[in-house]
Amino acid sequence: MESMPQQFNRSDQSVSPALPRPLSVLRADPERLLGVRAGSGTAVNSGFAGLVAIVLTTFFFYGVYLFPEGPFRSMLLERGPTQYIAVFLGLWCAVILVFKKRKLSIQRRALRHAVIPENHEFVLTTTSADQVIRAIYAIADDPQRFLVYNRILIALTSLKNLGRASDVDDILRSIGERDESTHQTSFATLGGFLWAIPVLGFIGTVLGLASAIGNFSSLLDNQTDVSGIVGSLKEVTGGLSTAFETTLLALVIALVLQLWITSQKKAEEVFLDDCQDYGLRQIVSRIKVQREQEPN
């Protein structure tokens, strides 16, 4: 199969218009451009995304540190470790979602190009399957990395071996189910972080309330005059600020991420449905099963 791209004439306009540059995941995937191992399809290398998030978190808090004194600066820098962890997890999720969006746009490019000739008289058989395979290799340098082309290549190989249209349809559906499972798995890390961020906020609330109660008890033990009690109440309110602001930050981050994840998941589900329709229109609807002639 490696020699197929050389056998296909790129100037053959009967299959697809000549492209100035063939499709390539290797030249467009953000992870591969940065020299790291990339996930398949729209999946993201979570470890690399975490490293990027560490760098972004460092720059973010350094920028906040340069802010003048104010409520926003105090909420992020003076409310305990949960704020740092919540922001880090939020940025980690954001990096994954940005990469997934970019990967999805790359995968969608494959749907713009037909691999079957526009001629309605063209019939896909075991003999003409090679022509379609060569067309796919002319469009994409690495077609196996495109979900829709990978489905078609596997289906056409099976067509040549099985020769039954119903089996090819079943194979396309089976690969589609596998891609849907991979799609769900690619959101597992995001789901875990989305659960952890509000929990961090509640942990911050508990720590803040514990600090406030401890300071209040110490205040009652050490102060006897009213003026001293009023002055020491600042320590108590500081603990209450930690209690409420950690929860506020965590819930805001979780809300934004939930909406973003929902949007991205919907976009990928629509893409998988489009891949299924593409396979039906380009492959299944053009298949003609060749039957052997029965002896007289």
From TrEMBL:
<keyword id="KW-1133">Transmembrane helix</keyword>
<keyword id="KW-1003">Cell membrane</keyword>
<comment type="similarity">
    <text>Belongs to the exbB/tolQ family.</text>
</comment>
<feature type="transmembrane region" description="Helical">
    <location>
        <begin position="193"/>
        <end position="216"/>
    </location>
</feature>
<protein>
    <submittedName>
        <fullName>MotA/TolQ/ExbB proton channel family protein</fullName>
    </submittedName>
</protein>
<feature type="transmembrane region" description="Helical">
    <location>
        <begin position="236"/>
        <end position="257"/>
    </location>
</feature>
<keyword id="KW-0653">Protein transport</keyword>
<feature type="transmembrane region" description="Helical">
    <location>
        <begin position="82"/>
        <end position="99"/>
    </location>
</feature>
<dbReference type="InterPro" id="IPR002898">
    <property type="entry name" value="MotA_ExbB_proton_chnl"/>
</dbReference>
<feature type="domain" description="MotA/TolQ/ExbB proton channel">
    <location>
        <begin position="162"/>
        <end position="260"/>
    </location>
</feature>
<dbReference type="GO" id="GO:0005886">
    <property type="term" value="C:plasma membrane"/>
</dbReference>
<dbReference type="GO" id="GO:0017038">
    <property type="term" value="P:protein import"/>
</dbReference>
<keyword id="KW-0813">Transport</keyword>
<dbReference type="InterPro" id="IPR050790">
    <property type="entry name" value="ExbB/TolQ_transport"/>
</dbReference>
<feature type="transmembrane region" description="Helical">
    <location>
        <begin position="42"/>
        <end position="62"/>
    </location>
</feature>
<keyword id="KW-0812">Transmembrane</keyword>
<dbReference type="Pfam" id="PF01618">
    <property type="entry name" value="MotA_ExbB"/>
</dbReference>
<keyword id="KW-0472">Membrane</keyword>
